[in-house]
Amino acid sequence: MSGTDDKSDVGADGTRAGSGGNGTGGTGPGTGGTGPGTGAGTNTGPAPGADAASTPGAGGDGTGAPPALTTPRGRRPVVAALMLGMALAAIDGTIVSTAVPQIVGDLGGFTVFSWLFSGYLLAVTVTLPLYGKLSDTFGRKPVLIAGIILFLVGSVLCAAAWNMAALIAFRIVQGLGGGALQGTVQTIAADLYPLKERPRIQAKLSTVWATSAVAGPVVGGLLAGYADWRWIFLINLPVGAVALWLVVRHLHEPSRPRPAARPRVDWAGALAVFATGALLLTALVQGGVAWPWLSTPSLGLFGASAVLAALTVVIERRAAEPIIPGWVWRRRTIASVNLALGALGLLMVAPTVFLPTYAQSVLGLGPIAAGFVLSVMTLSWPVTAALSDRVYNRIGFRLTAIIGIGAALLILLAFPLLPYPGEPWHPALLMLLLGAALGLFQLPLIVGVQSTVGWAERGTTTASVLFCRQVGQSIGAALFGAVANGVLAARLLDAPVTGLPDDLDAVARALEDPGTLSAAATDYLRRAVDSAVDHVYIGAAGAAALALLALITLAPRRFPVITEAAEAPRTTGAADRQDTPS
């Protein structure tokens, strides 16, 4: 691979985003151009393709830019708002999952309750590109405010739901707000901090996810058991209200010139992206669950999504301001990060979905102990993420991510080598190491790709990364679910007794009450689950190998980081405005 980025790393206005020593800066946001910067001028950034973080003699943030325009005091309330907003999205899935028995007991609808999660996931995933484009066009603040309000409205409606169908519909409303929260929070975090300081805020956001993974089941269980399941939605209101007040009061975006023409929103493209994503994810989520993979519903949904995908490409190519611009995939850096983090979403299904089943069915642990085996991964992830800047500032974003995903690949391959039945600390140790490896992989890629674009493209870029990761997660759930059930079906064909369950969920439920099975049947089922999860981890290792391949073959050796001077004025907190030049 060459040490420089390729010719495709060019903005829509024909200028390179800070990749050349004497390239021309693009026009600022609002003036019709898409390049970063506040006006025409020369770019005196690092050498072509260089990681600006490692450029000698760089300015305050190591990119040749002036020191950050914000102060820690001014950023604190904004950071608090971002963490609270992220907490709303992060804790949602875990807190709801623990209350499912109470919800089903009250509202009924056991056969469709999985759509409480699938509907929310669909809404979040398919709206990410739209919110990314809107935040680049109209600013981050209005999009984030709208997202918080929509999420809170959905929460109130969920608490008032009168049947399962209504609750599922209102969860989709929540998801529409959740898509704005996830993408816009990540984008504002990059706006607030210069390159060298971005690991600090990203580590804080990672800590929010880690804390939510542990606290969500506890809080959800307490509310469902000692109050009412409706409180798991009402508890969002005070958290969201504080976040909303902090955003309105303290977040100040840079003033931008009035655009020569009224900004145009590609609503046709947005609708096409939404419809394509909804059909594809519905096929992935419901295939093999609500209907067989080769049944008419599955084939129809996949066929319709393929037709809509082709239509979306046509619409986006003709649009003046497409929701998913072509440069997202033409630039090697962004395309390689999208593919790598899509593979991350794929491999994450193994520990998050199948490890708890393994811990309970094979190791015989209770739900709380099984949750602990998984949660140790969330302890090491933020630590290595926070320390990753010490690595990538020396060796670059790409090589740091390669080391992280290479280590993750070896750890995932080690899982099938665990003894049967083994001790709980065996998988816990592997998950601790896996979290450390993935923290070293994900954060450098997110920080790196956000640093290769200016303000006017950062929302779209961040949304594309998160969108690919979410799609990868949906594909992984469908693919690995099929793998696990296929292995189980093969093992149960030669079972020593008849009348045994024939899918992973049914086997897991049978092992929860082993008294109904003979000792031989119980051991056989546990070995079958062990084999199924081993195959899933081998598949996850394959996903890690795909991420590694994407980085080695597609990513430039040095990310083309742009200079801070080429960007629009930095987003600030309220306390910064008197000390900051306009």
Please summarize what this structure is.
The chain has helices spanning 72-97, 100-107, 115-138, 140-159, 164-192, 198-226, 231-234, 236-250, 267-286, 296-318, 327-330, 332-361, 367-387, 389-395, 397-414, 425-450, 455-493, 504-512, 519-553; strands at residues 251-252, 572-573. It is an all-alpha fold.
Please tell me about this protein's structure.
With 582 residues, this protein is an all-alpha fold. It has helices spanning 72-97, 100-107, 115-138, 140-159, 164-192, 198-226, 231-234, 236-250, 267-286, 296-318, 327-330, 332-361, 367-387, 389-395, 397-414, 425-450, 455-493, 504-512, 519-553, and strands at 251-252, 572-573. A two-stranded antiparallel sheet has the order 1-2. Helix 12 runs antiparallel to helix 13, helix 14 packs across helix 15 (397-414) and helix 18 crosses helix 19 (519-553). It is globular and about 75 Å long. The relative contact order is 0.16.
Order of strands side by side in the largest beta sheet?
1-2
Beta strands, count = 2
**Beta-strand percent range:** under 5%
Average pLDDT rating: 77
Helical run tally: 19
Instruction: Assign a percent range to the helix content.
Output: 55-70%
Q: What is the general shape?
A: globular
Question: Which structural category fits the helices and strands?
Answer: mainly alpha
Q: Which residues form runs of ≥5 with pLDDT under 50?
A: 1-70, 574-582
Whole-angstrom Rg: 24 Å
End-to-end separation in angstroms reads 42 Å
Largest sheet: number of strands, sense, barrel closure? 2 strands, antiparallel
Order of helices and strands: HHHHHHHHEHHHHHHHHHHHE
